[in-house]
Request: fold
Amino acid sequence: MQSSNSSQSNLLPHFRSSLEQFASSPSNFLILHTLPPPSEHQSQSSLKTLHLLDSSFNPPTRAHLRIALSALRSNTYPKPHRLLLLLATQNADKAPKPAAFEHRLAMMTLFAQDLLDEYSASPDKNASGDEGNRVGLAVDIGITKKPYYNDKAVAIEESRQYADENSDEQPQQVHLLGFDSLIRLLDRKYYPPEHTLAPLNPFFERHRVRVTRRSQDGTNWGSSNDQDRYLGALATGGAENVGGKREWAGRIELVEGEGEGVSSTKVRDGAGRKKWDEVEKLVGKRTREWIEKEGLYMVEEGKG
Reply:
């Protein structure tokens, strides 16, 4: 599926049909689309790292783009690597509105095209030997029925979608989060019935988390120092009384964000007011064109 008008017109029926089939299937995870097509990128037989950007994508924004590109350009994680854009059809906190899931998946596809364009156009000069991997980068569009991070990780592994074709080994998952999502990940209210953090132990034994700091733009996440202290408290046993472990802090990388003030809420507000130049600055041209053409978020007019 390319970005031409004719192929874009096929996105909604394709994703609508896929969602219906997925809902009635026993599967908990499914890859719906891959960019570029499989014949154009490397085999996953040697895949070492699966970067996973899990969001409501309502809509995908330039903030999502920066989080993904920062991880892909990093030398912290072994290569070859791959990116999974993951949408949960059951969300722990958010109802599926105002954009339907098929629209979000379509925008995720357009977002992936923008990301691949920027990734290939701006090579990381500090990433030695990465040029071949850069050319072969693949981005998957996937869905899951699981609302919680630890269950999503298990569903992905159990699907065997990323297992090595020869050894059957699985790549390490690196979950890309904003600081607000880290707070939710470590909130015991999401882990009934005991409501402790013990269910996260297998997750942190196998996988890593890369967290982008949140800015002080009216949120409740505090200063950069406050965010450092939060992670420091985990490292010194501050969560042990609720089942957390000190060593988890060593599996969490806290990185600086690039740019400020981009949010899906601002996009929806701008679309509601038909401020398309403003929207494009927040999401990019392809996604802005889709939002305008499909009349998304018009009901958001006047809301911030």
In short: The longest strand covers residues 81-88.
